[in-house]
Amino acid sequence: TQLLEQSPQFLSIQEGENLTVYCNSSSVFSSLQWYRQEPGEGPVLLVTVVTGGEVKKLKRLTFQFGDARKDSSLHITAAQPGDTGLYLCAGGQGAQKLVFGQGTRLTINP
Amino acid sequence: DTEVTQTPKHLVMGMTNKKSLKCEQHMGHRAMYWYKQKAKKPPELMFVYSYEKLSINESVPSRFSPECPNSSLLNLHLHALQPEDSALYLCASSQGPIAGTGELFFGEGSRLTVL
Q: Does the distance separating the beta carbons of B2 and A98 come in below 8 Å?
């Protein structure tokens, strides 16, 4: 069974601080996606990484895919209250169904 | 604005009722999905349709019945549900035929409460 473990599960920090969320697995994934979900809404895709060692930036968010394609990280610089939400990583492996991590619930306090 | 539209946004039903959730996408995607999400948990896959045919059923109880009338529409028919079925039901679509090869585009979800 493929599993994706996210850490931390909960994170509450002050506005302006930096943070990193991790997504780890013992399985190799052909691609890994990050989603953000706000209360009462569906997840919204932030980024997809496909190449080992790949780094993608989306404004203050930096996503990295591990060299072995088993892990990923999301780093947020100068967090803002609008970054608050549930962050989900999801891994794909060929034709198999997407595997979701348990999520990281992030709260940015003004 | 999401390009996957779900209706209704909220639904309250009794255990003897029959109701349906609807989902529509006009992105030309060929795969559509139903997920169930309980509070503080990640989405759990229920069904996958690929080219309008059911390709994955995650051992979902028969009181949930999916239907894909055409490539843009996906329904979830509900009958004789239990209170523990109360959850946010998410529809998603992807360009690829089977989940894992493509990115998912989710609707805003239908919040279901079973009394």
A: no
pLDDT band at residue B98, thresholds of 50, 70 and 90? low
Q: Are B61 and B46 in contact (CB under 8 A)?
A: no
CA distance, residue A41 to nearest chain B CA (Å) = 5
Q: Where are the beta strands (DSSP E) in A1-110?
A: 5-7, 10-14, 19-24, 31-37, 44-49, 55-58, 61-65, 71-76, 85-92, 99-100, 104-109
Digit-coded pLDDT (tens) for A15-25: 999 999 999 99
- b/e burial code for range B69-108 (CB count within 10 A of at least 16 → b): eebbebbbebeebeeebbbbbbbbbbebbbbbbbbbbbbb
The DSSP letter of residue A81 is G
Candidates B40, B41, B95, B103: best to mutate against A (most CBs of A within 10 A) is B103
Q: What is the pLDDT of residues A12-62, one digit of tens each?
A: 999 999 999 999 999 898 889 999 999 889 999 999 999 999 999 999 999
Tell me whether residues B106 and A43 touch, CB distance under 8 A. Answer: yes
Tokens of B33: 């999905």
Name residue, tokens 């209250």.
Answer: A81
- B-chain CB neighbours of A35 within 8 Å are 104, 106
A41/B43 CB distance under 8 A: no
